[in-house]
């Protein structure tokens, strides 16, 4: 190791002051947001928010507020388009809070069961796996197959029948309380495994723990109704009544015929050398419902993801996708473009020296956010550039009808199991406002 010397520091300082552009950049950047200072105006001027193919616009505009529920919002927004078309309505939301509630309860049970499994392998509590699982066990984020588990088990319901709460809109307090309790529960379960408690004793204790978590969620989010009655007007102002009906029947009878969660395929683009395309992957201990389907990634070249997404949009269907939204992003304009920031002009450096595979390997990028594609132009993406899609989109969900036979065949594979801390296990949770 080589010490940083005073002569080196003097050299750095001399180089800095020798270029007047650095002084101008310093004067501006110390007072204003450096991301706004480095914005590339030519790129902003080239975007017109216009598409060759665009799905129908619906209302209201949804907002996850101060929570990490983007994956839930994106799913329910994709789902409501064919549902609203079928019922001939122009104003509707599914209850995001309903899915959120059951995810918290189910995920508590999932992690407690996972901890027991890990502890029975005689892993120390300071091992990398246990430390990772304890880092943020019931965060707000999630993956597509976790949505499949929740909706297939609990169904869906209109937002009017189970609206938002303070803690669904601002989930920090809820998550802090649940994580504190789960770490306490993990300690109790560790000691039970150490003293060779029976499986019946362990499961009785987990049942008590999940009951406490249920109580916390019910107090902060409300208690989801077992059945409900929904009244609405269609576009011709005809009054309609649905119910009394359970959320499970609401999904199976009214939603599933037009949007079947089981028909959707999760395509990912993981270009790392040890993750060949045409293979199925899963991530150890990535899930939320014990007994539900495991998270399954169908790894394909980025061109397959682009073609499937474009084909879906051209048929008037929107697309759930996961990406690293914070990279090369202009929040005020909603533009995702590799050239939207001119860092070289302001700082004399570029942030594009390593490719997508190396960014995954060196911890520079992973999936942070889920959103919905609603339009596409075949020449170029006018809100997200084609190059940005290649570099920072990791996952798209499309109906199996849009995929070739060889892609679908991957679904039959026994997936390669990636470690729990692998970047492909990242959960979409970043709030919409960056």
From TrEMBL:
Key words of the record: Cytoplasm, Hydrolase, Protease, Thiol protease
Gene3D superfamilies: Cysteine proteinases
Residues making up the signal peptide according to the UniProt record: none
Main location: cytoplasm
Transmembrane segment boundaries: none
Cellular compartment(s): Cytoplasm
GO molecular function, one term: cysteine-type aminopeptidase activity
InterPro entries: Papain-like_cys_pep_sf, Pept_cys_AS, Peptidase_C1B
Listed GO CC annotations: cytoplasm
Reactions this protein catalyses: Inactivates bleomycin B2 (a cytotoxic glycometallopeptide) by hydrolysis of a carboxyamide bond of beta-aminoalanine, but also shows general aminopeptidase activity. The specificity varies somewhat with source, but amino acid arylamides of Met, Leu and Ala are preferred
Top EC class, one word: hydrolase
CDD domains: Peptidase_C1B
Family indicated by similarity: Belongs to the peptidase C1 family.
Name assigned to this protein: Bleomycin hydrolase
């Amino acid at each position: 190791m080589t010490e940083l010397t005073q002569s080196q520091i003097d050299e750095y300082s001399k180089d800095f002051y020798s270029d007047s552009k650095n002084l101008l950049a310093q004067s501006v950047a110390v007072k204003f947001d450096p991301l706004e200072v480095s914005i590339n105006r030519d790129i902003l001027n080239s975007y017109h928010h216009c598409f060759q193919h665009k799905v129908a616009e619906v209302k209201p505009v949804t907002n996850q507020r101060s929570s990490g529920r983007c994956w839930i919002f994106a799913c329910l927004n994709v789902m409501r388009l064919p549902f609203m078309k079928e019922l001939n309505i122009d104003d509707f939301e599914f209850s995001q809070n309903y899915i959120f509630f059951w995810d918290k309860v189910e995920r508590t049970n999932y992690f407690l069961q996972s901890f027991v499994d890990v502890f029975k392998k005689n892993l120390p509590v300071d091992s990398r796996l246990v430390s990772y699982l304890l880092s943020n066990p019931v965060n707000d984020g999630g993956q597509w197959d976790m949505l499949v588990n929740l909706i297939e088990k609990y169904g869906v319901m209109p937002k009017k029948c189970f609206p938002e709460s303070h803690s669904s809109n601002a989930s920090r307090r809820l998550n802090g309380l649940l994580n504190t309790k789960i770490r306490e529960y993990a300690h109790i379960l560790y000691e039970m495994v150490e003293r060779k408690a029976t499986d019946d004793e362990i499961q009785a204790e987990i049942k008590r723990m999940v009951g406490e978590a249920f109580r916390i969620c019910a107090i902060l989010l409300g208690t989801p109704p077992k059945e409900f009655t929904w009244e609405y007007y269609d576009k011709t102002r005809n009054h309609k009544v649905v119910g009394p009906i359970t959320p499970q029947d609401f999904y199976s009878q009214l939603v599933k015929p037009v949007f079947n969660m089981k028909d959707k395929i999760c395509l990912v683009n993981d270009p790392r050398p040890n993750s060949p395309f045409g293979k199925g992957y899963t991530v150890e201990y990535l899930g939320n419902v014990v007994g539900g389907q495991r998270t399954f990634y169908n790894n394909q070249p980025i061109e397959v993801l682009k073609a499937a997404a474009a084909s879906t949009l051209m048929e008037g269907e929107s697309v759930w996708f996961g990406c690293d939204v914070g990279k090369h992003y202009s929040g005020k304009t909603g533009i995702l473009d590799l050239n939207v920031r001119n860092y070289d002009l302001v700082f004399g450096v570029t942030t594009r020296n390593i490719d997508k595979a190396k960014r995954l390997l060196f911890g520079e990028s992973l999936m942070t956010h889920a959103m919905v594609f609603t339009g596409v132009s075949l020449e170029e993406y006018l809100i997200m550039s084609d190059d940005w899609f290649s570099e920072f989109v990791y996952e798209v969900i499309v109906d199996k009808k849009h995929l070739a036979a060889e892609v679908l065949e991957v679904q039959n594979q026994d997936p390669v199991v990636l470690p729990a801390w692998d970047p492909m296990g990242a959960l979409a949770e970043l709030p919409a406002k960056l």
